[in-house]
Amino acid sequence: MDDRVSEALPPWELSRDNHPLIKERVKAAADTLFHQIASGQYSYGTRLASERDLAKEFSLSRAAIRQVIDFLETYAVVKRQPNSGTFVNYVPPKNGFSVANAKTGESHLMDIRAIAETASPLEMNILCSIIEPEMVRIAALYMSVRDLANLRSVFDEIEKIVTDAELFAHLEKKFLMTIAEGTHNRLLITVYRIVTEVRRQPHWCATRVKSLTPERISDTQNRLKSLYMALENHDIESAVEFMKLVIAGAQDDLLNAR
């Protein structure tokens, strides 16, 4: 472990502003969690342990753990995703996201949000065409019974939708992110979380929602169902082909919505 990383100061220690008032034991837990993140125990984009597990680890109530998460989120150390969990949003200055200048020795952090806000449809289409077929190939090999149960749970919600385009777009992202998590490849999961962050940008969401007529929702449901069934059967080649159909359908929807 890099001592410079393990000794990283929490952002609330560097801020000149008064931090939110919290109990000492809550702050102590926040300090410990921050250092676990800074040391790489939780890398960027990974999901924190559940509230129940954290409560047990720190001998705190779940209500107190929620205060810890609130505090960390105030300083952008973590980010909550509805119905998905809490994910690490902090990038240590000396980790793999740091880009060093060979001449000056200076390092600059990659600004994920800036990338997400400026990514073009062409860039997104190219990236998804490269990543997503291979992502489902790996998922078809490694998804566990629990992974498939989680994916089925998301799809069951998707299957109920008839006209709610906004909810469908949200669950579609969740479905694909669940597949990414089923690869159990931390680097791939992190990269795909960036893809998901792009899709969460307001202009992307608005375009996707606009494209989702009841007919398009039904078509996409059928594609996702075929993809789920291929993954459930660990049918690698079929999963890849159905993922390509999902990508093609999303690209057509994007073009028709503009």
UniProtKB/TrEMBL annotation:
<dbReference type="InterPro" id="IPR000524">
    <property type="entry name" value="Tscrpt_reg_HTH_GntR"/>
</dbReference>
<keyword id="KW-0805">Transcription regulation</keyword>
<dbReference type="GO" id="GO:0003700">
    <property type="term" value="F:DNA-binding transcription factor activity"/>
</dbReference>
<feature type="domain" description="HTH gntR-type">
    <location>
        <begin position="23"/>
        <end position="91"/>
    </location>
</feature>
<keyword id="KW-0804">Transcription</keyword>
<dbReference type="Pfam" id="PF00392">
    <property type="entry name" value="GntR"/>
</dbReference>
<keyword id="KW-0238">DNA-binding</keyword>
<dbReference type="GO" id="GO:0003677">
    <property type="term" value="F:DNA binding"/>
</dbReference>
<dbReference type="InterPro" id="IPR011711">
    <property type="entry name" value="GntR_C"/>
</dbReference>
<dbReference type="Pfam" id="PF07729">
    <property type="entry name" value="FCD"/>
</dbReference>
<dbReference type="InterPro" id="IPR036388">
    <property type="entry name" value="WH-like_DNA-bd_sf"/>
</dbReference>
<protein>
    <submittedName>
        <fullName>GntR domain protein</fullName>
    </submittedName>
</protein>
<dbReference type="InterPro" id="IPR036390">
    <property type="entry name" value="WH_DNA-bd_sf"/>
</dbReference>
<dbReference type="InterPro" id="IPR008920">
    <property type="entry name" value="TF_FadR/GntR_C"/>
</dbReference>
